[in-house]
Amino acid sequence: MSEEPGVAGPESAVPRPELSPSVRAQLLATEHWSLLASRSTTQGEVLTRISMFLTFTSASLLSVALVGNATQFSDAFRAFALTVLSIDLVVGLLTHVRVMSVGMEDLMYVLAMNRLRAAYVDMDPGIGPYLMAGAHDDEEGAKKTYYFLGVRKAFSQVAGSSMVFMGFVNAALIALLLGSALLTAGLPAVAAVPVAVVAALVFFGTSLTRGHRRYLEVWKNNPPASPTG
Questions:
Q1: Helix (H) or strand (E) holding 115
Q2: Per the domain annotation, does 111 fall within a domain?
Q3: What is the tens place of the pLDDT at every residue in 165-208?
Q4: Domain span at residue 103?
Q5: Are 157 and 147 in contact (CB under 8 A)?
């Protein structure tokens, strides 16, 4: 039976030429540099966001102090202070969301580059001993890339992260804003302070839990193509 004009059958498919190892290496290296550039850009962007947030918060708190001295801490000052603290908190929460997203994006880039290193090793197993960064796109490979000079405790990795830093700063802003609002409403300090502290701790704990859950979802939803042997 003859085929319809213009419709190519399976037997007419043109076989793809086998690429040489040098061309494969060049394609992998191009992708590697693209991922590295994207990772650097993302890190620079989030560090700029954090710096802008801290500068904005510092300037706004200084303005609150100056207005307080000028108004003798009147009712108008209290309204001004609560407004400024609310704006600071909103900016901090938005920055916090971006920081958490960038943390996951950074892990994404690390895993992608680890997978490329696995391809390098497949092409030339002899280069394996010379790669200090991870060559496996699983959790162990990612940990090796983040710190390939030995074993580092997970606590230090998390405690020193930008996510924990932003969580702590926003928790402090929540405590300051809520405590100030309760005091303005007439609640005594012995009751307002504990409520503010508890709210800050709840936010900080929720932030850590959410970050840990997103981290676990990475390994659940993305099975490795080159797991650690």
A1: helix 75-123
A2: yes
A3: 999 999 999 999 999 999 988 889 999 999 999 999 999 999 99
A4: 21-221
A5: yes
Q: Is residue 13 part of a domain?
A: no
What's the CA gap between 19 and 123, in Å, rounded? 12
Total number of domains in the chain: 1
174 CB-contact burial (10 Å; exposed 0-12 / middle 13-18 / buried 19+): buried
Residue 9 counted as domain residue = no
Rounded distance, CA 141 to CA 146, Å?
9
Residues in CB range of 54: below 8 A, 6 or more apart: 169
Cα 102–Cα 30–Cα 110 angle in degrees, nearest 5:
30
- How many whole angstroms separate alpha carbon 118 and alpha carbon 71? 65
Report the interhelical angle of 75-123 vs 21-71 (nearest 10°): 170
Q: Is residue 8 over pLDDT 70?
A: no
- Distance, CA of 160 to CA of 157 (rounded, Å): 6
- 38 occurs within a structural domain: yes
Q: C-alpha distances in angstroms, 65 versus 69, 77, 78, 225?
A: 6, 10, 11, 56
Distance CA 81, CA 61 (A): 8
Q: Which amino acid, one-letter code, is at 64?
A: V
pTM for this prediction: 0.84
User: Structure tokens of 15?
Assistant: 């076989």
